[in-house]
Structures are given as C-alpha cells and as structure tokens.
C-alpha cells in the first residue's frame, strides 16, 4: 500500500512540476502562402513556447473575402498590404495591430533541371518571355506588377495567347509539373516549392516588392494571443527562416 501511495505521490509531483500556461488559445490565421511556409517551420516552436495552438489557412485575398462573407471567424490576417489596409478601413482589422512582416521581390522560375533563360537585363528578360512557350503569373499581388511590366515593355499582346493566370496560388506547381515553362511569382514561393528552380530576380529596373502585412481581427476573441503571434513573426526566431526563404523582415506594430 505504501508503495502505491509513494508512486502516486511521485506522479502527482511530476504533474505539478510541469509549467502551466494560462490562457492557452487557438489562433485562427488566414495567411498568404509566403507566411504559411514560415509558420510551417517556426509554428511548432511558437506553440510549445506559448501553449497556443495555430489553425492556419493559406490562400489569396479573394479566398479570405469569401470566408469572411460566409461569417467564418479568424484572429490574424496576413496578406498583401493593400488588402489588409482595405480590411482596416472597413473596420475588420484593428488598425493599431497593423504590422509589416516581410517583403519579397519577384522572380522567374523554371522546372527543376530545365535550362535557365538569360534575364540579366530588361532586354534579355523581354526576349526570354517572347521565346517561352508558356508563361504564368497571378491575377493578384505580384501578378498585377508583372502585367504592368509586360505592358510597359510593349509585349503584353505578343505573349497574351501563352499566358496563364490561375485563380489560385499554383503558379509554381504548374511549372513543377511542366505545364508552364516560365513562372513569375514572389521569390519566396519559388524557393519553398519542390520541383522548380529560381532563374533569378526581375532586373532591378523592373523589380517590385510585395509587402506582407498582418493585423488582428476586430472580432477576435483572443486578441492578446493574436498579438503574440505577430510579435513572434517579427522576432529573432523568425528572422533567419524569413531570410532563408528569400524575404526581408519587416518592422514592428504600427502606432
């Protein structure tokens, strides 16, 4: 009997010795792919450190709008600065939590092992697009800039018949499958997608950076935990992962 009591006492002592994390929460995160890949690496450490659980959905701005219109709840939105600012204007995001997390330049990709065209200058880039059998870029975000570049270079009409602009964020997957020869998306997506190679960034004269910004939902039931995640993404653990994925860290919470 004493032995049983002793064993029980030891077990109880071990349980009580474990750190208790108060106010653990589930944080629903709607995020661009660029940050989803970062969270895939550092999310588990955030969960272990804080006791919070992450529920991450990766998509494009239109996906987030559809979910919001269907009355789905979220705690943190991470998307391009434009969409986040629009949500702030509509009162859906707390303005004081607006945080630039990262920025990424736009690059050109080919299927892994495929020949890489010369894009070292604007003229070379132009010829690479004219020579390509097929091209893909998004309808939103980086794709808006790419479309404007093609217009600026005077080749939009010439390449129109071979351009694919998918509704979802699958440009790199199309390139990896060999369904598209050249893809143009943010560099981080290229570096984090199996089956594709980065040809290089757009030439400096036509380069543009996409800033991914975070904010806390005005209706979040766990705003403190949501803010903790945003701070974590701007902290020392996230920084090396962000850089390794081809992005530059952003600033702190805007005042």
Verbal overview:
- This protein is 42% helix and 22% strand.
- By secondary structure, the protein is α/β, with parallel strands linked by helices.
- The protein folds into two domains: 23-103 and 211-249, 3-Layer(aba) Sandwich (D-Maltodextrin-Binding Protein, domain 2), CATH 3.40.190; 105-209, D-Maltodextrin-Binding Protein, domain 2, CATH 3.40.190.10.
- The longest helix is centred in the N-terminal third of the chain and has 18 residues, at 33-50.
- The radius of gyration is 22 Å and the shape is elongated.
Distance between the first and last residues' Cα: 63 Å
| CATH class group of the largest domain | Alpha Beta
Instruction: Average the pLDDT over all residues and give the rounded result.
Output: 91
C-alpha-based Rg, rounded = 22 Å
Series of H and E elements:
HEHEHEHEHEHHEHEHEEHHE
State the CATH architecture of the largest domain.
3-Layer(aba) Sandwich
- What is the general shape? elongated
Given the helix and strand composition, which structural class is it? alpha/beta
Residue stretches low in confidence (pLDDT < 50, at least 5 long) are: 1-21, 251-255
Main sheet record:
10 strands, mixed
Q: Can you give the helix content as a percent range? A: 40-55%
Summed up, the helix count is 11
Can you tell me the CATH superfamily of the largest domain?
Answer: Periplasmic binding protein-like II
Number of strands: 10
What portion of residues belong to β-strands? 15-25%
- What is the count of structural domains? 2
CATH topology of the largest domain: D-Maltodextrin-Binding Protein, domain 2
């Amino acid at each position: 009997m004493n032995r049983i009591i002793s064993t029980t006492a030891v077990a109880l002592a071990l349980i009580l010795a474990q750190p208790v994390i108060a106010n653990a929460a589930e944080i629903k995160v709607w995020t661009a792919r660029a940050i989803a890949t970062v969270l895939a690496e550092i999310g588990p450490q955030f969960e272990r450190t804080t006791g919070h659980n992450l529920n991450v959905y990766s998509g494009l701005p239109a996906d987030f709008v559809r979910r919001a219109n269907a009355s789905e709840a979220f705690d943190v939105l991470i998307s391009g600065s434009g969409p986040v600012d629009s949500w702030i204007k509509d009162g859906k995001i707390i303005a004081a939590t607006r945080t630039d997390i990262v920025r990424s330049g736009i690059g050109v990709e080919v299927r892994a092992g495929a020949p890489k065209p010369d894009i070292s200058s604007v003229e070379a880039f132009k010829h690479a697009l004219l020579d390509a059998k097929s091209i893909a870029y998004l309808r939103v975000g980086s794709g808006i800039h790419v479309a404007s570049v093609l217009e600026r270079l005077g080749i939009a009409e010439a390449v129109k018949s071979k351009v694919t602009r998918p509704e979802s964020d699958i440009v790199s997957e199309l390139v990896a499958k060999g369904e598209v020869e050249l893809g143009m998306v943010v560099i981080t997506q290229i570096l984090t997608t199996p089956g594709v190679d980065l040809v290089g960034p757009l030439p400096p004269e036509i380069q543009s950076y996409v800033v991914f910004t975070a904010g806390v939902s005005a209706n979040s039931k766990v705003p403190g935990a949501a803010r903790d995640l945003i701070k974590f993404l701007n902290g020392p653990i996230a920084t090396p992962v962000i850089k390794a994925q081809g992005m530059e860290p952003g600033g702190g919470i805007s005042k």
